[in-house]
């Protein structure tokens, strides 16, 4: 699961976190599906299964609900 402390000193530019993670796909270390699981599917399942309303009111609410309802 993608995890980062965006406010931490070693993340000077928030906009670089996901592109840096995407380099694993570019370097053929993981597939695009692996990346989706890493950045979306796994976090949605982790948080959404514990609290179905976790993503309510967020930009990913619809996609999260669709994933959780399977």
Structural overview:
The protein is mainly alpha-helical and 70 residues long. 54% of the residues lie in helices and 0% in strands. The chain has a domain at 30-69. The protein is globular and about 35 Å long.
Averaging pLDDT over every residue, what do you get?
Answer: 89
Q: Could you give the distance between the termini?
A: 20 Å
Strand content: under 5%
Number of helices, counting only DSSP H or I runs of 4 residues or more: 3
Specify the helix fraction band: 40-55%
Helix/strand class: mainly alpha
* Rg estimate, integer Å: 14 Å
Features:
mainly alpha, 70 residues, globular
In short:
With 70 residues, the chain is mainly alpha-helical. It has a domain at 30-69. 54% of the residues lie in helices and 0% in strands.
Please write out the topology:
Elements: H1 17-26, H2 32-50, H3 61-69
Helix pairs in contact: 2-3
């Amino acid at each position: 699961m993608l995890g980062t402390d965006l406010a931490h000193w070693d993340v000077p530019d928030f906009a670089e976190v996901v592109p840096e993670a995407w380099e694993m796909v570019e370097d053929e270390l993981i597939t695009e599906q692996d990346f989706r699981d890493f950045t979306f599917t796994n976090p949605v399942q982790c948080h959404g299964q514990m609290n179905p309303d976790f993503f309510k009111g967020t930009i990913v609410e619809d996609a999260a609900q669709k994933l959780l309802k399977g």
